[in-house]
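== Sequence, structure tokens ==
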Amino acid sequence: MKKLFIATTLASIAGIQIAHAADTAAVTERLNEYQTQGAADFSAERGDQMWHQNFPDPEGGPAQNCTTCHGTDLNLQGKHARTGKIIEPMARSVNPERLTDGKKIEKWFLRNCKSVLNRECTPQEKGDFLRYLSSK
């Protein structure tokens, strides 16, 4: 019984490590792509600042930032400001599926940057956001 518990525990740890390696690969791939597009070194601090920065609504509504929908604690669920749809936590430590698919990363950057910043994010901004989100 003890051997079975140890084997199960080791298999679980290996699975978690494999999942984190996949996360890292997707993020690394995106960061490398952004650098080929002209981005420099990426900064989690700049990503954090932008995450909390208010952007004016061009239609005169209240300014918004990433926390408007995702909340201030990336370990918790967020809620879309207009639709009320639940947004699963952004932190990979809580939601291991986050940042594992490069196509999804790009899809959500396109949607969210246009929605919050009212424009597409630059490769530098995307890389800074990824550094910030990857640190959680």
User: Anything to note?
Assistant: Residues 3-23 have pLDDT under 50 and may be disordered. Helices lie at 2-36, 44-52, 67-70, 102-116, 123-134. Residues 2-36 form the longest helix (35 residues). The chain has one domain: 2-134.
